[in-house]
Amino acid sequence: MTVTTPPEPARTPLTVSGAHGDAPREPDGAYLDHAATTPMSAAALAAFVAEAQRTGNASSLHSAGRTSRRAVEEARETLAHALGARPSEVIFTSGGTEADNLAIKGIFWGRRAQDTRRSRVLVSAVEHHAVLDPAFWLAGHAGAEIVLLPVDGDGVLDLDALRAELAAHGDETALISVMWANNEVGSIQPVREVVRAARPYGIPVHTDAVQAVGQTAVDFSDSGVDAMTVSAHKLGGPVGVGALLAKRDLALDAVLHGGGQERGVRSGTLDTASIAAFGVAARHAVDCQPQRAARLTALRDDLVVRVREVDPEAVLRGADPASGRRLPGNAHFTFPGAEGDSLLYLLDSAGVQASTGSACQAGVPQPSHVLLAMGVPEAEARGALRFTLGATSTEADVDRLVAALPQVVARARAAGLVSGRALGGAS
Amino acid sequence: MRVLAAMSGGVDSAVAAALAVEAGHDVVGVHMALSRNRDQFRTGSRGCCSIEDAGDARRAADVLGIPYYVWDLSERFEDTVVADFLSEYEAGRTPNPCVRCNEHIKFEALLDKATALGFDAVATGHYAQVVTREVASADGGVRTLRELHRSPNDAKDQSYVLAVAGPERLARAMFPLGGFASKDEVRAEAARRGLSVSAKPDSYDICFVADGDTRGFLRERLGSRPGSVVDTDGAVVGEHDGAYAFTVGQRRGLALGRPAADGRARYVVDVQPATNTVVVGPAELLSVDRIAGEKALWFDGVLPGADGADGAVEPDGDGWFDAEVQVRAHGAAVPARVRAVAGADVAGADASGMEVALTGSPLRGVAAGQSLVVYRGTRVLGQATVSASWRAR
């Protein structure tokens, strides 16, 4: 038998200084990809470092474990409070993808176990791959039938199509998943209406709110959904931690089995440092949300106007910013005749970091399934570029983009002509 | 210069990129994705088309500290290289897809896109040298000649498959490995820089044909087309599943039911797509000493210029000059008399042609569709595609 000596827990609060105390910096140049990830807040980093310097497993019963457990539970309460949930509804995960997998698989298995007729899974056609791929995996491995719910030209769910689907098959449906806001075009979905439509049929509703928290008001209890995915690194926390908020009466099977942490639904030693930082970041993001949204809306609207001045052919995709149904930090364009990857490379070499917004296969940008679902022709979808703003974005970032853009678009169009691919001419 | 380094994921292109960086150029690494569905492509770590290769290229770019992108050229690759591969076999010819890839993908699609995006040159890991030389021009000024030369590494020399790119396109190409005398030297350079691909095996197969099974690939894409194998008298001696799968000079895979009357080995001597017939005969029928080429191109300063400028060659009254020709990627160049001729393409339009009369021993199994490259010493003079070959003496 091996006897190990537990390290002595720190007795005094750690002072975080020097490099650790500096606010995390935005990448050099104009960073316009906050929807991919956004800098950690200084407070979140300090919380992370403080916990990472301690030793303790939150499941241990001794004092070191209790110290960790306390940090985890405080973060759980903070996160729950920030998002309008009860602490017991928070299941910490390794991030948004795991939370989405847990929701899609766990709710499908749980609901079908209660009622074996329920094999249909309804997901919007514009969901993130972390929702779509587990759904299609269930189709291939667990007999699920996947229904892709259509969206309109703005990428907003077609509620009539949902209602018609439910009228025909509501009793056979195990789960509906509709994201709070789309990660590519920023359109905010009518989640409350989805809940209202689903309720008479006893269908649990999941929403992926990864892009929404901190950008727009998100309240778990008020929304009426049964489960909600959130992620830390999109709101100023660290990469590698997220949560599924799940109502206590939701039938939810485990995906990760083991030590029985997190209500037995998500086993695995809790990542105390990341969870503590997540709590701090979420509280800060939600507290600042109204002012930040107002500031980013103005900055984004300015970006949209100036991009259109540079290139009148650029088409803004997604909901009209004036409708209030679009994330404040999102601007998404297609540039006819240019390929997104050419635009991205040229902007990158000019010190402007943006995204094509869509998934890659081995580094090759694919035409976005979101744009295709919105009815954008494939050739035009290849010219997509997404700009997303966050806490550290300034007017100088937009200035740098606008300064670089004329030559970038001209060159990308020239490359589009020789490659003969991006044929979405001006209309 | 702004240099785009084409990075396949192999050791050669990684070292070429490293040398471009060390020469002080502003280098960006680009990996070409040539298939949408990469499962169709050869797996393992032997080539330039698998996901592993893309990862190796990315890792090499990381080590070199240069930006890295993947460009999707899969549609162009299918429409040019793969389509040409299929139509050439269907026409009873033997294509060289690596030559077509250099012609349509590396030194056309990739090069043109790079140029449009503001790059000055494309660097690749090919073994060949571009040499520039200044000569007096007819108008009394100075003219820069751009010559393509063999690599000092005979075993690896790729001037044969590069010649098709021609002088104008090669003006924007950079071959940092051109002066390397051995592959071991390149591997040592890779290891010295901490590039993990230093020990990666060489690739030999056609990248889009899984497991090197060309016949299987052709059958899958062109379908089964049973027909007859006949001897030179027209007597049926066997059956086949599609004449397209046979190459002049081929001996294996004929599956002839009975031996030849004289008991000697039989080879494919002709493939006749119109009648879906494969003709077999004795080895001596494969020997040729005359070759005709189509789609000919000539490098700068080779032929005497229309403006009276001197060329490298001095044709006789009928246009013939002495040179050496190579008709296979891994063959040697043999002495010949060569001339440029006017010709017509299949549609009847004017096109340049080439005629070759071998002056030494005849060659065996010169297949239509292969690249015909004309050399003088290490210097490439011109290139054409073999359209016909025959025995004149």
From TrEMBL, chain A:
Protein keywords: Iron, Iron-sulfur, Metal-binding, Pyridoxal phosphate, Transferase
Family under the similarity heading: Belongs to the class-V pyridoxal-phosphate-dependent aminotransferase family. NifS/IscS subfamily.
Record flagged with keyword Aminoacyl-tRNA synthetase: no
Domain Aminotransferase class V: 31-401
Protein name as it appears in the record: cysteine desulfurase
Species of origin: Promicromonospora thailandica
PANTHER family: CYSTEINE DESULFURASE, CYSTEINE DESULFURYLASE FAMILY MEMBER
Compositionally skewed regions (Pro residues) per UniProt: 1-10
EC number: 2.8.1.7
SUPFAM superfamilies: PLP-dependent transferases (SSF53383)
Coiled-coil positions: none
From TrEMBL, chain B:
Residue numbers binding ATP: A6, M7, S8, G9, G10, V11, D12, S13, M32, G125
Keyword Kinase (UniProt): no
CDD domains: MnmA_TRMU-like
GO cellular component: cytoplasm
Function (record text): Catalyzes the 2-thiolation of uridine at the wobble position (U34) of tRNA, leading to the formation of s(2)U34.
Source organism of this protein record: Promicromonospora thailandica
This protein's UniProt keywords: ATP-binding, Cytoplasm, Disulfide bond, Nucleotide-binding, RNA-binding, Transferase, tRNA processing, tRNA-binding
Gene behind the chain: mnmA
Residues annotated as site: Interaction with tRNA: H126, Q370
Catalytic activity: S-sulfanyl-L-cysteinyl-[protein] + uridine(34) in tRNA + AH2 + ATP = 2-thiouridine(34) in tRNA + L-cysteinyl-[protein] + A + AMP + diphosphate + H(+)
The keyword Cytoplasm is annotated on this UniProt entry: yes
InterPro entries to which the protein is assigned, alphabetical: MnmA-like (IPR004506), MnmA-like_C (IPR046885), MnmA-like_central (IPR046884), MnmA-like_central_sf (IPR023382), Rossmann-like_a/b/a_fold (IPR014729)
Top-rank taxon, per record: Bacteria
Cellular localisation: Cytoplasm
Region feature (Interaction with tRNA): 156-158
Active site per database record: C101 (nucleophile), C207 (cysteine persulfide intermediate)
Protein name: tRNA-specific 2-thiouridylase MnmA
